[in-house]
Amino acid sequence: MERNSTNYILTRHTYCFCRQKNTNIRLTLPVVCFVWQIAMIILFGVFIRYDEESNTHWVETKAHNNITSDIENDFYFRYPSFQDVHVMIFVGFGFLMTFLKRYSFGAVGFNFLIASFGLQWALLMQGWFHSLDPQTGKIFIGIESLINADFCVAGCLIAYGAVLGKVSPVQLLVMTLFGVTLFAVEEYIILNLLHARDAGGSMVIHTFGGYYGLAISWVLYRPNLHQSKRMQGSVYHSDTFAMIGTLFLWMFWPSFNSAITDHGDGQHRAVINTYLGLASTVLTTVAISSLSQKTGKLDMVHIQNSTLAGGVALGTAAEFMISPYGALIVGFFCGIISTMGYIFISPFLEKTLKIQDTCGIHNLHAMPGVIGGIVGAITAAAASESVYGKQGLINTFDFTGDFKDRTVLTQGGYQAAGMCVSIVFGVVGGAIVGSILKLPIWGDPADENCFDDEVYWEVREPMVMHWHGTLCPEFWSNTNLLKGPQRSALNPHYVQL
Amino acid sequence: MERNSTNYILTRHTYCFCRQKNTNIRLTLPVVCFVWQIAMIILFGVFIRYDEESNTHWVETKAHNNITSDIENDFYFRYPSFQDVHVMIFVGFGFLMTFLKRYSFGAVGFNFLIASFGLQWALLMQGWFHSLDPQTGKIFIGIESLINADFCVAGCLIAYGAVLGKVSPVQLLVMTLFGVTLFAVEEYIILNLLHARDAGGSMVIHTFGGYYGLAISWVLYRPNLHQSKRMQGSVYHSDTFAMIGTLFLWMFWPSFNSAITDHGDGQHRAVINTYLGLASTVLTTVAISSLSQKTGKLDMVHIQNSTLAGGVALGTAAEFMISPYGALIVGFFCGIISTMGYIFISPFLEKTLKIQDTCGIHNLHAMPGVIGGIVGAITAAAASESVYGKQGLINTFDFTGDFKDRTVLTQGGYQAAGMCVSIVFGVVGGAIVGSILKLPIWGDPADENCFDDEVYWEVREPMVMHWHGTLCPEFWSNTNLLKGPQRSALNPHYVQL
Amino acid sequence: MERNSTNYILTRHTYCFCRQKNTNIRLTLPVVCFVWQIAMIILFGVFIRYDEESNTHWVETKAHNNITSDIENDFYFRYPSFQDVHVMIFVGFGFLMTFLKRYSFGAVGFNFLIASFGLQWALLMQGWFHSLDPQTGKIFIGIESLINADFCVAGCLIAYGAVLGKVSPVQLLVMTLFGVTLFAVEEYIILNLLHARDAGGSMVIHTFGGYYGLAISWVLYRPNLHQSKRMQGSVYHSDTFAMIGTLFLWMFWPSFNSAITDHGDGQHRAVINTYLGLASTVLTTVAISSLSQKTGKLDMVHIQNSTLAGGVALGTAAEFMISPYGALIVGFFCGIISTMGYIFISPFLEKTLKIQDTCGIHNLHAMPGVIGGIVGAITAAAASESVYGKQGLINTFDFTGDFKDRTVLTQGGYQAAGMCVSIVFGVVGGAIVGSILKLPIWGDPADENCFDDEVYWEVREPMVMHWHGTLCPEFWSNTNLLKGPQRSALNPHYVQL
Fold first, then answer.
1. Which of A213, A415, B26, C112 has the fewest CB atoms within 10 Å, i.e. is most exposed?
2. Is Calcium tagged as a keyword (chains A, B, C) (predicted)?
3. C55 touching chain B per CB within 8 A
4. Whole-Å CA distances, B374 to B420, C45, C353
């Protein structure tokens, strides 16, 4: 493209040159990708094997376990949910972040990159912590491992939402490397040591991921971010693209919360609860969004994000007997709190606490995640044999082995403890990782180039200059206006065609 | 955004002020959302419980029924289809309606809102009519209830298509409240009293929903709708977005028609028939669309809509032994009729019958639904033991209990009777509900503001004025032209960037 | 639309008139659609019946085979994968091709048309070759037949990628008719006669489809294609739309490679391998893409396409015990090779071999397909009883019946032979079909109208003229410039609004 042959483009490049950071990632990005991928291959070669349901010895396993039909393979219990979760990770998270007018490539593309790396590293980290076979020293993977790897990646993608548009892909890969590592450890503490239940990850995924991202964003605070203000809004079609992400997350959240719950009633119940909770959230989100504007107009930011809060908050309790109206109540309050978060808390976080949260993950993941942890603890503590049945209670909370004497009250306490662990891991881990990402070697963009795909992507299409919300007339009569400092005096808006 | 600082925008707002209706929904919308959601919570608390396959007593149910494996839980028979149906409701219907150049937020967003409300109300209404346990006074829900709730919502979303862009979200919620109520009653009459079969809802969903929407649109007729003509077309990208809706509806329609059919061969056959019928429809739609233009060009309106008619028309007969070529024949004629509907019948409806049908639901749902009802009646009447087998015939038409002596001919008659019930409920119900919606309290837009997201949504992006299909040169040389009555003389087209 | 009332549009039409080919398809397209669809109905009536799992006699089949539960119906093993494959065919392939700035309707719409026709013809062709019952002379279809029909269509859609924007819909239908025919024959030779394994179709689908398309494109070479250069690039939103296609292909590829593998461990293992291979491909694609630009920027063309190469290359070996790290290695190299293909090989093909490959199917399908065939041959030849188990080896390679004495080495040889068959069928078949498509009766566009939806679609939206990458100033000051030959001197770019 001959983009450089126009005054406008040349001018812009010249103009930016003096302030521009070095965003050349031609060395770092390929090196990181190659080295890490080769490391993955070696570590997989050493550690990862097919489990007994996915290797060719299944025919003998079946005979040995008196399994009469292939349909008993765990694959058929979990594959539909797995694919839904997979869509949430790649299309859901990816497109949800395309709302910015000129950062769709980065939203979808970097989401794609870090999820693809993260899931490999997650299989290893989760394998070492959860399922390393002591005899063979191997990790045996099956469909449930893939779901857990996707879950682990979700935590890092949530964190990406806080720093969207302000970091380089290399920083994102580093953030994912440490995020997955921290995730596997906190998950091990919460699920295995504390024996808390958290099938949909209100605590281990959303609370951890939310605070991890917020802490990183706090360390990477940019006081001059207003210099890229022209790029921060959405345009009409970018908001429509974002709704693709919202809807796929919303529709498939029942699969997310039920993907690794118990076979049979466990998966069935988790789906019903999540379905209902999310429906309830939509109505209260719309209500608060409409209340927040003088004429009752709705704000796409709320519809795109807060409608999902009910799913987050049911991550822990969806598999419990929270009852259908209980799920509706959780969704009801999450819609209100999350939307009010966008209206009141996000500006407060930015101004007072110096946390710049591009996607508002505090309102969509961190707060609803904490609510979900609390709801889970209360629901667990309130469980009773009369409601669950004797065996049902044991199955639901897995009161077997070392934990067979645990009472529901104790369980509630451990659930609450798990909540705290995930917050601590998120905040402390995020602060440390943020410090690493602050090193000036990662190729992050200058303040005035944030939220702009042109920094890391070949963008083939010209942008048209706009002035005060409409095409700038001076542009046509006198392109010289665009040379030099007058440009900022005009406060132009660039919107895409 | 500083949109108000341009002449154009100021002018536009001033200009419109005198005629504008009060579209302020800051009071009504939140009140309706809150009150209805709280009512849902209370009613769910009183009535709705998990069924035996989704509560923790499943372990005892299994033992009691000699079920050996969790995979026998109805969840595993229906969950993949349920998720497909869920995608059709939220992404399919939502994005199908984004074809208008400036109503994508309303299409996807209001669809999201009314579906989320409707499915809750549907669980209650359908529960009261179909599955209220007389002993406990409770409604027990499982995965099949969720599918039925989504189906019920589909009827209302079809009706939304007729009034798209011309009503307020409050009107839509009212329309959904009554729509779901009427749906549950007509469904009860058709399926339970008449004992007609209609697994994919040609009659109960599409015919009812279609006529319900058309009748409402007839009552709400706007003689001056041409005042918002500039907003009624599509733009390039809005047509592409609409194809997302079309394709997800088309691809998942086999799941729609098979979601609640009999386990085993019932679901299997319904998928095959729908898959084939839809494929056939695409070819005849393309043929007629090409024939309708002087140079054989295709029209996206036809491709987006008429390609789906075959799925609608197989809603009743898909589970029958209509045979693969039978499904192809149904699809063949539906593609022709539906496309001709867009070319000839829609203009006739608008001019002569004063029915303004934004999405052409008459061609996509009402007509093909009626065809589907007739096909179902004929196929049922022509069923024979030689084709179905003795037990197969009983299973397919559920000739058990009170209906065990019914013949296939009688069944065909009752199918036809069901057809009439759905039309009557749609037309009469729609006329009544339309009268309610005509009250001047719902915040509906003025004739010249129809099909414009700016009425109910915060839209952050400027529009550029176009004149005679290209950017208006006068705009740049003399912005004063835009002040006052000259504007309408110019007949400007607003198209989004 | 009053598009003709502006100088610009009038000029453009006048200007093009002299060179324009006759693209009127008002006769040919409807005739082809009608005749072929009627032929399908007749042939289906003669040949196609429900198989024993999808007809009402299933109740007797079950009893006869001592099947205790409906969940044993093949439908429940394969339906979730089928729906994923269906999404890949219609949304995946369709949207992947929307990257061109002004060919989204053609990409999604023609993809829709030819897939809908192709799957019907595929059911017949594959039925005659693979499953014609010799006693009854009928083809019995079930869910696996539908998957195979979708697979067959995939081969033709791959070929469409090479000629995207340069052919008429009639040519595409002809290409699909012959493509499906050739596919069924080569598939019969490879899978039945040579008894090669190729569940995900590295050979039968991707290699064949790739070379079929390339050979057609070679025959249809247009030396003056540069005349439509202004239409060949992407714009910002068209690249975002294309990512919808990319991601749905990427996410559902595990379902593609596992859809028709053995029940149980076969499907389970194929999913794990494909999931891992694809993840690995993303990292190396990003690495090479970044390396290829001076400043390390990423190119959407690579991200949209090369990230999928790992799935193609695991089409044969995914069901084997290639082991998780083996899958990573395959993905690793495919990402590198495919991306380098876009950088180095595509320009070479166009300049030296005169093959114009719009979507780069050589890099995404042909090369990775060949790699997949080789990997499959090697993995098969290296299989051993110690890894697979005695029965596992027999099951995996289906060493039963006539092939029960085959060794793994022989099997490796036959796999390699299958590879060659698919290349030969693709190249020779494509050359012949290309010659047929060269006849001047199909309504293909002139060189300067390629990649433009206006040729075959009613496009309602104006285009704005751009010059040197930004809005052309002369356009506003002097529209006369656009009349006549000066237009080409200006080398204008048309970009959509």
1. B26
2. no
3. yes
4. 10, 21, 58
Both tokens of C225, joined, read 């294609």
CA distances, A341 to each of A246, A288, A348, A355, B146 (Å)? 18, 11, 9, 14, 31
Spatial CB neighbours of A121, under 8 Å, sequence gap ≥ 6:
A36, A40, A176, A177, A180, A181
β-strands C48-50, B493-496 pairing? unpaired
DSSP class of C168: -
Pairing of strands A463-467, C463-467: unpaired
Tell me the pLDDT tens digit for each residue of B370-405.
999 999 999 999 999 999 999 999 999 999 999 999
Contact A362, A210 (CB under 8 A): yes
Task: Map tokens 């499907």 to a residue.
Answer: C267
- In a 13 Å sphere around the CA of A62, the CA atoms on its Cβ side amount to 20
Report CA-CA distances (Å) from A337 to A93, A331, B27.
21, 10, 19
Place of tokens 């704005």: C464
B461 sits in the region (left: phi over 0; alpha: psi -120 to 50; else beta) called beta
Taking the C-alpha atoms of residue B432 and residue C81, their distance in angstroms, rounded to an integer, is: 45
Per-domain boundaries in chain A: 24-449, 462-497
| Distance from C-alpha of B477 to C-alpha of B6, rounded to nearest angstrom | 15
Report the distance separating Cα C385 and Cα B109, nearest Å: 57
CATH number attached to the domain at C24-449: 1.10.3430.10
Contact C342, C305 (CB under 8 A): yes
Joined together, the tokens standing for residue B107 give: 């299409």
Cα separation, A258 vs A84, in Å, equals: 11
The SS3 call for residue B298 is strand
Which chains neighbour B (Cβ–Cβ under 8 Å, 3 or more pairs)? A, C
| pLDDT given at position C483 | 36
Q: How many helices (H) and strands (E) does chain B have?
A: 22, 5
Indicate if ipTM > 0.85.
yes
Window C:272-301, CB contacts with A under 8 Å: 272, 275-276, 278-280, 282-284, 286-288, 290-291, 293-300
* Pick from B252, B256, B250, B271: nearest CA to B335: B250
Q: What is the pLDDT of residues A35-94, one digit of tens each?
A: 999 999 999 999 999 999 999 999 999 999 999 899 999 999 999 999 999 999 999 999
Q: How many CB atoms sit inside 10 A of residue B35's CB? A: 11
Mutation target vs C (from B74, B325, B396, B496; most C CBs, 10 A cutoff):
B325
Q: Residue A132: beta bridge partners?
A: A139
Q: Residues near B172 by Cβ (< 8 Å), separated by ≥ 6?
A: B110, B113, B114, B160, B163
**Token pair in block for residue C218:** 């070679």
CATH number of B24-444: 1.10.3430.10
Q: How many CA atoms lie within 13 A of C98 on its CB side?
A: 29
What token pair was written down for C440? Answer: 């001047």
Q: Is A341 exposed, middle or buried (0-12, 13-18, 19+ CB in 10 A)?
A: buried
Cα distance between residue A281 and residue A364, in whole Å: 12
pLDDT digits (tens, 9 = 90+) for C197-237: 999 999 999 999 999 999 999 999 999 999 999 899 999 99
Rg over alpha carbons for chain C, rounded to the nearest Å, is 24
Handedness of CA B284, B287, B290, B292 (dihedral sign): negative
Helices C408-437 and C367-381 pack at an angle, to 10 degrees, of: 160
DSSP, collapsed to helix, strand or coil, labels residue B445 as: coil
Angle, vertex CA A453, rays to CA A449 and CA A457, nearest 5: 120
With an 8 Å Cβ cutoff, is A50 touching chain C? yes
